[in-house]
Amino acid sequence: MFMKNMIVKYCAALIVVLLCGTSIFAQDIERSVVKIFVTSQEYDFSQPWQKSKQSKSNGSGCIIDSNKILTCAHVVEYGEFIEVRKGKDSRKYTARVAFVAPEYDLAILEVDDEKFFSKSNILPIADIPRVGDRVTAYGFPTGGNDLSITSGIVSRIENIDYSYNNFNNLAIQIDAAINPGNSGGPVIKDSALAGIAFQGRSSGQSIGYMIPTNVIRTFLADIEDGVYDGPVPVLMKWQAMENTTLRECYAIDDTLTGVLVNEIHFCSLLRSYLLADDIILGIDGMEVQNDGSVITSGDFKSTFENIIQSKRMEDTLALRLLRSGLDTLIEIPVEYSRAPALLVEKVALRPKYYIEDGFVFTTPSYYYFQHESYWQYYNPLLSYYYYGRILNNEKKEEVVLISSVLPDKSNIGYHDLSNRIVRSVNGLPIRNFSDLIAAFKMDTDVHVIEDIDRNKYMISTSNLEQTNKEIMQKYGIPSQMRN
Fold first, then answer.
1. Is residue 244 located within the same domain as residue 385?
2. Do 162 and 174 meet the contact criterion of CB atoms below 8 Å apart?
3. What is the pLDDT confidence band of residue 20, given thresholds at 50, 70 and 90?
């Protein structure tokens, strides 16, 4: 009887210890979680000289090494004024964006007031969890002010398109809902950071996604030198090697798997090393499957492109190729700069524009396309640029558009023009926005604009300076250009 009572007391004490330990653990995490308050103001990309009205939103974040706050890029997008507060603290502190990684949907905030970090806990970064592991999401979803804690199971690890920038990368699906306001918050496993909550799926119940720690580590390693370079530019077209006849034509043995190289962009890291019709069989000692997938050393499925994109500067990339029937191994030093030909960009939020005789010229960006919903139905070439994302042409650095024409008596007949790609101005090919401005500085009686379809639009230079002043005054435009 005595032993039985002792066992009961021991079990009761153990339960109390476990419950207290859980409570202490939750309190420790609370000191790492941050609520982010954002006052934002977007540019009006159809009228790029002005901004839209202010809006307020909030998100979540967590404190990581070196007293920095890790959150999602979309949480702080267009942030004109940002404040943060910890867990149950009432005081808000002013924060600023230090780095933004649009491809990874990640951002780093910094707080100058060191008091913010007193009594804070830095979250260690864990390895990628496995399917079936239990994780806990912390954040501040809409509907309340206090910290919300939800638990779930890792149900899937695979590549998806990140909704913020349509960049394909590894993501972890969990069965805990990710609601507005949760974005940027930590997902915890065994008291360490397992990922960052970043998007949900409206078509299903209790389906959320988190950015895995390998992506987070790649981002943090990238910015160690104070500059964000972005993912290694792979920028190539390749083809799956699943068809039997296709494999026979390239004399691929049944024991081999890989993908066929079709074309390599001039900004690609691989430009000087790969040839069309090469077959990529392996990468860093891992087999490349016929669909481009790779089973990593962590026993999760990724893609050969993601393996390359996650490399650090001065790393070495080892590719096993089948070239002209020969099994070949090449080593590629990782040295690159941010690809200048990326069309759909999210780093520069201020849209360029130039106005001449009411013609509004701009460069299309992700935001421009989001605002101009009808362009894709009337201009297939713009659709190609948008979905292709890159210009495979070393002679053209930017697409320059006539986005609209501000009606005036001087430009009658052109009032309905919109979304016309500019080929040349005064005979000068337009490779970028600087070329456009230089062309309009040419001394001539008539400026001749030619679009991609060879249509010509004439602007008289007689009294043009006065006409520009009148048009800008009429439409409340503060400056003729922003470049």
1. no
2. no
3. very low
Confidence of residue 138 (pLDDT cuts 50, 70, 90): very high
What residue ranges in 297-352 does DSSP mark as E strands? Answer: 301-303, 316-323, 326-333
Q: Please give the radius of gyration of the chain, using alpha carbons only, rounded to the nearest integer.
A: 27
Report, as residue numbers or ranges, the catalytic residues. Answer: 74, 105, 183
Same-domain check for residues 328 and 448:
no
Whether the per-residue pLDDT at 191 is higher than 60: the answer is yes
Phi, psi at 187, each rounded to 5°: -110, 125
Domain that holds residue 167: 31-229
- Is there a single domain that holds both residue 56 and residue 201? yes
Neighbours of 126 (CB within 10 A): 16
In a domain, 214, yes or no: yes
How many C-beta neighbours within 10 Å does residue 410 have? 17
pTM: 0.84
Quick check: 429 and 438 in contact, CB under 8 A?
no
Count of domains forming the chain:
4
In sequence order, the β-bridge partners of residue 178 are none
* Number of C-beta neighbours around residue 318 at 10 A: 13
Examine the pLDDT at 449 and tell me if it is beyond 60: yes
What pLDDT band is residue 8 in, cutting at 50, 70 and 90?
very low
CATH of the domain at 143: 2.40.10.120
- The H or E element that residue 470 is part of is helix 464-474
Q: What does the pLDDT read at residue 45?
A: 79
My answer on whether 26 and 157 are in the same domain is no
pLDDT attached to residue 389: 52
